[in-house]
């Protein structure tokens, strides 16, 4: 069965739905060029016009189309009024951390009036990824899709109403929780369930008998999302730029930072109109969330009378706190494991890490009024280290052996052990954390296993943990405290999903494995942006290997300065 084209990506914001270093692109690949102009543009949503930061005046931003193995050159011109960087989410960037993008980790930001050229090296990625700003909360509106088609001569392996930066500044000033958003969106539109939004509701025209590939991206700052299409099943065929064994579902659950490729078969003989809907999945009942439902409309174009009928709403979209549905969906993800897309899970581990995830507090400074729990400043941590961005980038400091920028002693385990997932016992003395700029240094080629352990400190919840520079295998997950004696026996080492963002379950754990064969400096963080701001992140420094192609590339000549 052929795959019909949808001219856009499906963005969940929410969702997006998309239908000087010398680098040589892969054999048969192309070098593709794009210009990104960062500038302010006026957009009207929910009855109010606002000035937002955009790329080329578009929201969502332009889609980059490429083939596996291509080299994409993106010239970014900052015509806005604030610093900016761009990250290529899920692109491994072999040996090229200089173009990865997180501010003060691999580069200084691009200042207003400045420009920088990113070299985006596509290697093993295939399917749907995305790009976004990696500075402050700018990715709210500065984001777009990366659609990576198979190499020539190959085919798809399947058949068928406030300024968010003002919110951030206020939250940082008083150390409080971030105010919730007013709506989720699909391709930049909240849908016709919201005021002043009916005319702009995103619509997808389909023809009976055709199959459509939906490229679904969760670009939201803070929400996991359920996504469903009324009257239709979805067949999931990929995640995070890698193919999966196809499986049919009535809905998906997608975490911030993740992408899902799904087939939609237009098989309704009666035609008509059907809502595709995105609703927040919130695992922590103690946190206020935006539980609204964003909608777009699937319209059968060969049913003229049906195009005026009210759309059918999905009856199988899970409720906002339906953790069982989220867990059941995630458990079905498996790597394709075909001859052309093999699975290569490392069996022997050199570095074992147990990393606890926590929301914490820091003491309020004298003469300050703070808005966090018990009058403290809100914080977050990994292994009780609340990460602090330095004033210069870590990559440049590492490359030039500059001392005093970071400490190479991020711990392999938490500083103290307790019943991490006892949600009924959260004593105040566990809330505190300490700030630091600590990194983990790994030898080239070492196999690393990281077990992320959620904790009940100030409330257990799901966490989408994202690693730059690598795609890892999610070899295991479960609820409760990780048991190093028993739980590894439950690992899937045959066909685990190959992802760059793993959804760590509430009051549970998830284990990932990867081989440190990409030298450079790589950020690891929760993809809930408020948690990144609070310090739920760290950095891996992967040392050079001995062979020339196992060494980090030198920096380009036009790196921005701090």
UniProtKB/TrEMBL annotation:
Q: Per the UniProt entry, what species is this protein from, by scientific name? A: Triticum aestivum (Wheat)
Molecular function via GO? copper ion binding; hydroquinone:oxygen oxidoreductase activity; oxidoreductase activity
Q: Which family does it belong to?
A: Belongs to the multicopper oxidase family.
Class of this enzyme: oxidoreductase
Q: Which reaction does it catalyse?
A: 4 hydroquinone + O2 = 4 benzosemiquinone + 2 H2O
Its cofactor is: Cu cation
Is Lipid biosynthesis among the key words of this record? no
- Tell me the function of this protein: Lignin degradation and detoxification of lignin-derived products.
Q: Name one GO biological process term.
A: lignin catabolic process
Q: Which GO terms describe its cellular component?
A: apoplast
User: Which keywords fit this entry according to its UniProt record?
Assistant: Apoplast, Copper, Lignin degradation, Metal-binding, Oxidoreductase, Repeat, Secreted, Signal
Plastocyanin-like domain span: 39-151, 159-300, 410-544
**Signal peptide as annotated in the record:** 1-18
What EC number(s) has UniProt assigned to this enzyme? Answer: 1.10.3.2
- The protein's name is Laccase
* One Pfam family cited in the UniProt record for this chain: Cu-oxidase_3
Cellular location(s): Secreted, Extracellular space, Apoplast
Q: How is the cofactor bound?
A: Binds 4 Cu cations per monomer.
């Amino acid at each position: 069965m052929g795959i019909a084209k949808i001219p856009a990506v499906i963005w969940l914001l929410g969702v997006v739905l998309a239908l000087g270093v010398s680098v040589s692109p892969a054999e048969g690949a192309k070098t593709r060029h794009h210009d990104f102009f960062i500038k302010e543009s006026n957009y009207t949503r929910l009855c109010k016009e606002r000035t937002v930061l955009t790329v080329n005046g578009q929201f969502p931003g332009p889609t980059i189309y490429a083939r596996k193995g291509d080299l994409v050159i993106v010239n970014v011109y900052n015509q806005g009024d604030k610093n900016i960087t761009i990250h290529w989410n899920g692109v491994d960037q072999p040996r090229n951390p200089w173009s990865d993008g997180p501010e003060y980790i691999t580069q200084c930001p691009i200042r207003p009036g400045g420009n920088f050229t990113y070299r985006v090296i596509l290697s093993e990625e295939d399917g749907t990824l995305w790009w976004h700003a990696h500075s402050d909360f700018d990715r709210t509106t500065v984001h777009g899709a990366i659609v990576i088609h198979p190499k020539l001569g190959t085919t798809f392996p399947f058949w068928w109403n406030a300024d968010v930066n003002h919110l951030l500044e206020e939250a940082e000033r008083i150390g409080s929780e971030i105010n919730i958003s007013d709506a989720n969106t699909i391709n930049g539109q909240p849908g016709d369930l919201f005021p002043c939004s009916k005319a702009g509701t995103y619509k997808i025209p389909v023809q009976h008998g055709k199959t459509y590939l939906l490229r679904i991206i969760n670009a939201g700052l803070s929400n996991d999302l359920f996504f469903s299409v009324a009257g239709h099943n979805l067949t999931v065929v990929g995640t995070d730029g890698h193919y999966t064994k196809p499986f049919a579902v009535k809905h998906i659950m997608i975490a911030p930072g993740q992408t899902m490729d799904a087939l939609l078969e237009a098989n309704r003989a009666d035609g008509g109109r059907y809502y595709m809907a995105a609703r927040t999945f919130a695992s922590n009942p103690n946190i206020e969330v935006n539980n609204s439902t964003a909608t777009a409309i699937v319209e059968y174009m060969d049913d003229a009378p049906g195009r005026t009928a009210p759309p059918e709403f999905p009856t199988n979209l899970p409720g906002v706190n339906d953790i069982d549905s989220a867990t059941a969906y995630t458990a079905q993800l498996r790597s394709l494991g075909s001859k052309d897309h093999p699975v290569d899970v490392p069996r022997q581990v050199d570095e074992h890490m147990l990393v606890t995830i926590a929301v914490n507090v820091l003491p309020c400074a004298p003469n300050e009024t703070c808005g966090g729990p018990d009058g403290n400043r809100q914080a977050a941590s990994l292994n009780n280290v609340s990460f602090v961005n330095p004033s210069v980038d870590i990559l440049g400091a590492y490359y030039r052996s500059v001392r005093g920028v970071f400490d190479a002693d991020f711990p392999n385990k938490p500083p103290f052990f307790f019943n991490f997932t006892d949600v009924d016992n959260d004593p105040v003395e566990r809330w505190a954390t300490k700030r630091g700029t600590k990194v983990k240094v790994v030898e080239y080629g070492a196999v690393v296993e990281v077990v992320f352990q959620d904790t009940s400190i100030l409330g257990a919840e799901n966490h989408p943990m994202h690693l730059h520079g690598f795609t890892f295998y999610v070899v295991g997950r479960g609820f409760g405290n990780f048991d190093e004696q028993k739980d590894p026996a439950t690992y899937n080492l045959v066909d685990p999903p190959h992802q760059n963002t793993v959804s760590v379950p509430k009051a549970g754990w998830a284990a990932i494995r990867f081989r440190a064969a990409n030298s450079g400096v790589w950020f690891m963080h929760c993809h809930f942006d408020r948690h990144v701001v609070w310090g739920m992140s760290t950095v891996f420094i992967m040392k050079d290997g001995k062979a020339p192609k196992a060494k980090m590339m030198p920096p380009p000549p036009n790196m921005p300065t701090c």
